[in-house]
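Running this now, will post back.
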Amino acid sequence: MIDLKRNSKKELVPAPGKRSRASSIYTPNQKEDFKISRGRFSNFLTCPRCFYLDRVVGLDEPGMPGWTLNETTDLLLKQEFDTCREAQTPHRLFLENGLDHLVPFKHPDMDKWRDSLHHGLMHRFEDTNIILTGGVDDIWQDTRDGRQIVVDYKSQANTRSLDAETYLSDVYHQAYKTQLDFYAYLLQQMGFEVAETAYFLVCNADRTAEGFYGEMKFSETLIPYNWNTDWIHGKVLEMIELMTTKKFRTRIPVVKIVPMPTRETCTKTSNTSEKILNLSSIPPLAIKSGHSNSQSQCPLSALRSHSGKGGNSVLDTRVNGYPVPLDFRKRVVYSSYTFLI
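Update: finished.
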């Protein structure tokens, strides 16, 4: 993947692949506070190694364009709910769904809590220097008992039925539930009484319309979700343990990603039908050794191929002149060539 990086003037600038701000990189056992956003925490849950490379090693992943249509939906919804927030009256969707006992929560820090980039909900985890943060879309309040209700806006466009069971069981929506779990956890740690039921406000664009005609129509559906925060404390402890260890650092003498080999540049072997490696869990990266001496100086540079007869042999593992550490490779055999993918 190519990352074309531009500055605020939209001018092309070097994209070194390494974070430049020291505040974005965690140094094991540092004393200064370090923020972990809800998004970064989700990255840890998905791939601890990727999280470590990002937050500790400081590798900068390629950027992505913004989701401007989704952001516009969020912006307009917030403006609409803010009108009801100021007047402390139920929103039209509350009345339509028999939730007239709800109002948008009015609090002087609401704008800060919704600003995921600069503030968000915040909580210091126990007596550590880790600050957990998360920018919530909205918070409502149950006027009967004063409890807060976590809300997240979602925009989509599909023709499938939209109900709670279908929506929450979708494999691509599991991260959505984690999101509300995390926001509920932060609010609880900040001292608020949080109602057990949160809501997704799903805005679904109509794909069956006869034409665009300068407008796009959306249906609006409230999806209730009973959050669960019991698992979060343990996972945060695991994340902090990973950040303060050198578990992955010793396995990454590296920081330069090199091109993957073509058929012509792959290592040619003999009797490859008898030499299949079990490296199925290794990410597809080829890394240049950080050692200053030859390949033999790198303990991870040798690839051992185990034959069906119980023997083993060492193969040359250089790609374009660079040694490829064992821990970052998955191998398949194509004809008489060994491919690193």
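The chain has eight helices and 19 strands. More later if anyone needs it.
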